UniProtKB/TrEMBL annotation:
It is found in: Cytoplasm, Cytoskeleton. Transmembrane segments: none annotated. The lineage of its organism: Eukaryota, Metazoa, Chordata, Craniata, Vertebrata. InterPro entries: Kinesin-like_fam, Kinesin_motor_dom, Kinesin_motor_dom_sf, P-loop_NTPase. GO terms for molecular function: ATP binding; microtubule binding; microtubule motor activity. ATP binds at residues 92-99. Keywords: ATP-binding, Coiled coil, Cytoplasm, Cytoskeleton, Microtubule, Motor protein, Nucleotide-binding. The gene is Kif19. PROSITE patterns: KINESIN_MOTOR_2. This is Kinesin-like protein KIN-8B.
Length: 335
């Protein structure tokens, strides 16, 4: 499933005279207008760069956190408790609301908190014959290095791929959890360790990709029944140095962010093409190696793309929409 969320215009965009160019037509279609287009130019009317995009669901700037959660992620709880894997990740330019959608605020809970609350409520309401074990890990990919956000003193961790092709992080801390509040406290602790720095596009810009992995094991009288895993990923914002005005260390970080997002885009593009024999290069970045199962079909995957409606963000919005549209054309095959 691919969803699109259009954030409200910011005060800075309004101050610089930006116009609203991203419009929802209905719950699935949105139109992006070209701010440079002259509506009175009849000669170039047939070459209009205005384009409509179709997604599974489109949210305008008035959509609440609850609306976004119910339409995109709520169904993944049943997927995980039934023994399957599920992934939800946010994508889009810096400052378009990805972290807000995923983590939210104290007053407006994000996808993580709502999903975990429903997961533990489902476990509490389940049959007393079945025992559940919930554990979690939390990591970030910063400058192509993996850091454990629950135990940052471990330093940089390595990826290891077993004979069946399953990728795991060696030495990653796994913590048992018994309630949603406990998980959110661990999440808050991890977020304090996450790399965040101000840029011209966002004063609290995430400089890393963060991945929360929640594993649910079911057993009955000591015998394993099912095993499901839920991944919730807050990707760093796609970078344009001119937009973020990055220099020095921020510029290097942006280059690494772009490299991993380009690798992800290449995988999505290859997966969306009909030739099933085409080689999919997951090894170009640690992000794509970790997302391998989620992209190729061994997981129920939801992508929530984010854009700004401002005319000053036209190029970033257009590239994000093209990226998301390619992702929507992926036809997953379970292995």
């Amino acid at each position: 499933q691919v969803a699109l969320r259009i954030r409200p215009m910011s005060a800075a965009e309004l101050a610089e005279g930006a116009r609203h160019i991203a419009h929802c037509v209905d719950h699935q279609v949105m139109v992006l207008q070209d701010p440079m287009e002259d509506s009175s130019d009849v000669l170039r009317a047939s070459h209009s760069r205005q384009k409509s995009y179709l997604f599974d669901v489109v949210f305008d700037s008035t959509a609440t956190q609850e609306t976004v959660y119910h339409a995109t992620t709520q169904s993944l709880v049943a997927v995980v408790t039934s023994g399957c894997n599920a992934t939800v990740f946010t994508y889009g330019p810096t400052g378009c609301g990805k972290t807000y959608t995923m983590l939210g605020t104290d007053g407006e809970l994000g996808i993580c908190a709502r999903t975990l609350a429903e997961l533990f409520q489902t476990i509490e309401d389940s049959s007393s014959d079945v025992e559940y074990e919930v554990s979690l890990s939390y990591l970030e990919i910063y400058n192509e290095m993996i850091r454990d956000l629950l135990s940052p003193s471990l330093g940089c961790l390595q990826l290891w791929e077993d004979a069946s092709g399953h990728v795991q992080v060696v030495g990653l801390t796994t913590v048992p959890a018994t309630s949603a509040n406990e998980v959110m406290q661990l999440l808050a602790r991890g977020n304090r360790q996450r790399m965040q720095e101000p840029t011209a596009a966002n004063c609290t810009s995430s400089r890393s990709h963060a991945m929360l992995q929640v594993t649910v094991r079911q057993s009955h009288r000591g015998r394993d029944l099912r095993h499901g895993c839920l991944c919730m990923i807050d990707l760093a914002g796609s970078e344009r140095a001119a937009q973020t005005q990055n220099r020095g260390q921020r510029m290097k970080e942006g280059a690494h962010i772009n490299r991993s997002l380009l690798a992800l885009g290449n995988c999505i593009k290859a997966l969306s093409q009909p030739a099933s024999s085409k080689y999919i290069n997951y090894r170009d970045s640690k992000l794509t190696r970790l997302l391998k199962d989620s992209l190729r079909g061994n997981s129920h995957t939801v992508m929530i793309a984010h854009i700004s409606p401002a005319s000053t963000a036209f190029e970033e919005s257009r590239s994000t929409l093209a990226y998301a549209q390619r992702a929507k054309s992926i036809r997953a095959t379970v292995e």
